[in-house]
Inverse folding.
């Protein structure tokens, strides 16, 4: 279509072909490919800094090896590369890279996030305290010390509550409890997951906060020099009431009023200022109750999973392109969505070894379905929440309104039959 050709041509005119951007990414990040495509589309030179043991294939992308746990050594390597490439921006793909990105940007004289902002976007307990200090609306909360008597620490709690690790993402280990017995059971269920966390403090702490009823939404935005721009607000038509909090439907544009959207953006903007975030993408989850919006989670990265693809269906420009343009100080006006778009994160129904997913071709024929992708390969174990950390795949849809998008996603999901085999635990004598 001539319109898409014109958009591509116009985007290229905004960028100096010699612009170089440093992309900090874990070696297993699924976002690397999307940023490579966006950079190629825009004519941006992208250098990837990753902690992979082996360098990236030069035919795919240029890269340097860094160690996210050794900021000083990584910074020296990046500063040496900066002499050659003269980076105009630094972008982190995932939570694991945001701390180093803030350090690098500050050292290179670029507009940077505050040094402790990465900690606040990853530590739920510290984030709650910061928002409390700034008098922003938050649920009541307390941090449980697992090395001390637990029952005494639960005294005075008003139920229901939500029990969660202090630093895990993707709803892992997040459990609703309606009374003290359920609360203790939730704590015991979460304990084994904590052994994966890097610090002793994180392994010995659990956050308990009051459950907030109401609708949940997701906010996607971009920061540049402290100013927040809204990309979109996603509605979540499924109630997020527990006992576990698995993400499912994201549908945009939102049905909420302009006034409610302004409140959502205001809360996210206030939280960004509280955390010290000034640059880069922002993904936030909020609960709407009465005339108030409560921040549940916020990350200084793009939306998780393959969900970023849903924006390309609606805007005809990828989220990664928008992030690159914003980082280079070349933001464009966000195109208005003429249709509704949505994504369903295919839930994992039960634990087991994936054998196959049937019905995909039939699901693709549902009117409005744009794409279906299965992320887990056959033969791999499926683990549902709250212990699991991934989704089976993603279904994308596009239609003239939200109701049609939601119906298309539900109909496509109903076509799928997930065939699994039971896992067998072998105990050595």
């Amino acid at each position: 279509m001539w319109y898409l050709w014109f958009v591509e041509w116009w985007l290229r005119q905004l960028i100096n072909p010699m612009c170089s951007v440093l992309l900090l990414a874990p070696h297993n990040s699924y976002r690397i490919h999307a940023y490579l495509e966006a950079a190629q589309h825009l004519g941006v030179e992208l250098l990837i800094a990753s902690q992979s043991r082996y360098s990236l294939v030069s035919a795919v992308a240029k890269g340097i090896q860094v160690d996210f746990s050794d900021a000083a050594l990584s910074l020296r390597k990046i500063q040496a590369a900066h002499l050659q490439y003269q980076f105009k921006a630094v972008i982190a793909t995932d939570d694991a890279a945001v701390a180093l990105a803030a350090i690098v940007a500050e050292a290179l004289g670029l507009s940077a996030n505050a040094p402790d902002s990465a900690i606040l976007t990853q530590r739920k307990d510290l984030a709650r305290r910061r928002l409390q200090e700034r008098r922003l609306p938050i649920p009541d909360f307390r941090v449980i010390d697992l090395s001390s008597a637990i029952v005494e620490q639960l005294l005075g709690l008003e139920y229901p509550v939500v029990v969660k690790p202090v630093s895990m993402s993707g709803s892992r280990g997040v459990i609703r409890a309606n009374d003290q017995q359920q609360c203790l059971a939730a704590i015991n269920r979460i304990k084994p997951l904590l052994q994966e966390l890097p610090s002793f403090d994180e392994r010995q702490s659990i956050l308990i906060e009051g459950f907030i009823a109401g609708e949940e939404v997701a906010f996607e935005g971009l920061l540049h020099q402290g100013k927040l721009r809204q990309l979109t607000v996603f509605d979540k038509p499924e109630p997020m009431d527990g006992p576990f909090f698995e993400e499912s439907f994201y549908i945009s544009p939102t049905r909420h009023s302009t006034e409610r959207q302004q409140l959502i953006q205001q809360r996210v903007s206030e939280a960004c200022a509280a955390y010290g975030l000034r640059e880069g993408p922002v993904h936030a989850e909020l609960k709407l109750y009465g005339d108030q919006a409560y921040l549940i989670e916020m990350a200084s990265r793009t939306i998780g999973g393959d969900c970023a693809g849903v924006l390309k269906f609606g805007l005809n420009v990828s989220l990664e392109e928008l992030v690159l343009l914003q980082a280079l100080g070349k933001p464009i006006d966000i195109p208005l969505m003429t249709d509704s778009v949505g994504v369903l994160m295919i839930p994992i129904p039960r634990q087991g070894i994936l054998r196959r997913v049937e019905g995909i071709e039939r699901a693709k024929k549902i009117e409005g379905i744009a794409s279906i992708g299965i992320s887990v390969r056959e033969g791999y174990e499926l683990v549902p929440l709250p212990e699991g950390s991934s989704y089976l795949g993603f279904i994308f849809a596009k239609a003239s309104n939200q109701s049609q998008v939601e119906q298309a996603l539900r109909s496509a999901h109903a076509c799928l039959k997930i065939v699994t085999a039971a896992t067998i635990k072998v105990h050595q004598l």
